[in-house]
Design goal:
6 helices, single chain, mainly alpha
């Protein structure tokens, strides 16, 4: 009998705990089922203005890039004509020095140039040859 009373008390205690748990679960059912209450948000006007400003800057940059690409494409097509029309001159001192040694205007033969520059120091010969190369006067 005592054993049956003890068992009855335990069953009564267990049923009480189950009822409390059931009540708690019903209260928190929305959290457990994943139901979400209404969510609302507002758009900050400063953010949308900044977005519009950035979109306008991006459009301007893309337009400028397109213009630069078009200019570069047209420049590469006309480059050979432009390069041939550039005036290539030799400094007056170099032209005078070459004229004294019998080398005149026009393309200069390398052997004749070496012979004409033989009296100069190595640095001076290099300077004269680089000037002539830049001017396109050495053949």
């Amino acid at each position: 009998m005592e054993h049956e009373q003890h068992l009855a008390q335990r069953l009564e205690l267990a049923s009480t705990l189950l009822e409390r748990t059931l009540a708690w679960l019903e209260e928190h059912r929305s959290a457990l089922t994943g139901e979400v209450e209404k969510i609302s948000a507002t758009v900050d006007p400063a953010v949308s203005e900044r977005e519009e400003e950035l979109v306008a800057k991006l459009a301007a940059a893309e337009s400028e890039i397109a213009d630069l690409k078009a200019a570069a494409a047209s420049a590469t097509q006309t480059t050979p004509a432009v390069l041939t029309s550039i005036r290539k001159t030799v400094p007056a001192s170099t032209a005078d020095m070459l004229a004294k040694r019998g080398i005149g205007d026009g393309p200069v033969d390398v052997r004749a140039l070496d012979a004409a520059l033989s009296g100069l120091s190595l640095e001076q010969r290099i300077a004269v040859k680089s000037q002539l190369l830049r001017a396109g006067a050495v053949s």
